[in-house]
Amino acid sequence: MPKMRSKADLPSKTCASCGRPFSWRKKWEKTWAEVRYCSDACRTGSRDAARAKQSNTA
Ligand SMILES: [Zn+2]
Question: Ligand 1 centroid to 21 CA: how many Å?
């Protein structure tokens, strides 16, 4: 059985918008060097967008 890679091993950055730390994600495997924001909402600079997204999932 292969040894599981722990989350602590993943690289992390600080979001340039909200200032919170975030960890590497699979979707960023090709663009990690350019990633500056933890989410699309932070990337577009809109907190309201993040809220709208959440309420839409319900
Ligand atoms: Zn952020």
Answer: 8
